[in-house]
Amino acid sequence: MTTKTNRILSGITPSGNSLHIGNYFGAVKPQIELQNDSSKETFYFVADLHALTTVHDQKTLEKNILGVVLDYLSLGLDPEKCVFFRQSQVPAHTQLAIVLANYISFGQMQRMHAFKDKLQKDIGVESINMGLFNYPILMAADILLYKPFGIPVGEDQRQHIELTRDIAENFNRTYQQEEFPLPEPLISKQVGKIVGTDGQRKMSKSLGNTIGIFEDEAVIRKQIMSCFTDPNRKKATDPGKVDGNPIFIYHDLINDNQDEVTDLKSRYQAGQVGDVEVKEKLFLAHQRMFEAARKRRLALANDLELVTKILAMGADKAGQVANATLTEVYKIIGVKN
Ligand code: ADP
Ligand code: TRP
Q: Above pLDDT 70, what percent of the chain?
């Protein structure tokens, strides 16, 4: 087994055209930190084929893919330090997925959350495409091709990584080989599940409870201004709760001015500050934190040739690693080409 104890891999599905702060703090920021750790070797990719479970319009898909690529590059992804590519440009992902489907049971696939949730919402298997059902198998292939040690993602991806481990174990056991090392989920307790602006559920683009990063300032301002706070506080002079209050969770993450956050929290608890001031200050902190990334994104959007080159270079490097694993797997199962 060629375990790569320093190898890190993660992917992101371009199911929307821009990332939100939940994605950023839960996934992108930890990924960039690992990229900047010179003892690690990082592979990050845009899982464009995964987006087909929901996006069936060519123009929208293209826009989403480009959007997420630009987001990542502007937020600090450095193609000199990590291998950055598009899933569809490395055909070994789909090739391995077909093989891996044979080492997991239908019953286990039926227990996957994404499938079960969809089944509950849409009532009936007729409305669920097989891409969604198979999604975790393609994700297992995405991971196992690179034999990584760790997968930095948010909490909602944990079950997928557990399934990947099960598939790897089944495969290894079947052939009495240690082909696939078992990948570890790298999920932060603090930021692995950031609450949405509704104060109830995880921030998620499909729930409309997000705060964006690259949207127009007016949009971000509105998202922040409509954020849920302490529901028991009727007026600014009522003492408010800070713990678990989404607006203060965001302040802790975004606001670089610690003294300001401490002051706002103590005034909030004492009933000496209104929600509007707390939100205004969060909006200003958001501007400070993402201003440079927003500028970089504008510049990059005007240099799409460079973006294409970066992805081609990434696909080339990723393809070498992925094809080597696929060749080993074909040999183990008795298929040679
Ligand atoms: P969304 O739920 O908005 O569709 P994705 O499923 O595209 O987000 O998630 C992309 C990455 O961001 C994944 O690694 C996921 O675990 C992480 N992520 C998504 N939402 C959150 C959140 N609210 N808190 C922390 N991480 C998150
Ligand atoms: N399922 C992940 C998401 O929705 C994206 C993804 C696809 C992924 N393949 C992966 C993440 C492999 C980590 C490793 O964001």
A: 99
Distance, in Å, from the CA atom of 329 to the CA atom of 290, rounded to the nearest integer, reads 43
- Test site for ligand 2: of 50, 94, 149, most ligand atoms within 8 A of the Cβ: 50
Three-state secondary-structure class, residue 45: strand
Residue 87 CA to ligand 2 center (angstroms) comes to 10
Name all contacts of 196-204 with Cβ < 8 Å and 24+ positions apart. Answer: 196/22, 196/246, 197/223, 197/224, 197/226, 197/227, 197/228, 197/246, 198/228, 199/227, 199/228, 199/229, 199/231, 199/245, 199/246, 200/228, 202/22, 202/155, 202/156, 203/20, 203/21, 203/22, 204/22
**Which ranges of the chain does DSSP label H, i.e. alpha helix?**
21-23, 29-35, 58-74, 92-100, 106-110, 113-122, 130-144, 158-175, 217-225, 246-254, 258-269, 275-301, 304-333
The position carrying tokens 């969604």 is 132
Average pLDDT, the chain: 96
Tell me, in angstroms, the distance from the centre of ligand 1 to residue 201's CA.
12
> Do the beta carbons of residue 201 and residue 195 sit within 8 Å?
yes
The correct CATH number of 7-194+303-333 out of 3.90.550.10, 3.40.50.720, 3.40.50.620, 3.40.50.2300 is 3.40.50.620
Determine the pLDDT at residue 3.
54
Q: How far apart are CA 111 and CA 284, in angstroms?
A: 43
CATH 1.10.240.10 occupies which residues in the chain?
Answer: 215-297
Tell whether pTM > 0.90.
yes
Q: Which CATH superfamily is domain 215-297 in?
A: Tyrosyl-Transfer RNA Synthetase (1.10.240.10)
Print the SS3 string covering 185-248.
EECCCCCCCCECCCCCCECCHHHCCCCECCCCHHHHHHHHHCCCCCCCCCCCCCCCCCCCCHHH
**Which residue has 């084929």 as its token pair?**
49
Ligand nearest to the CA of 205: 1
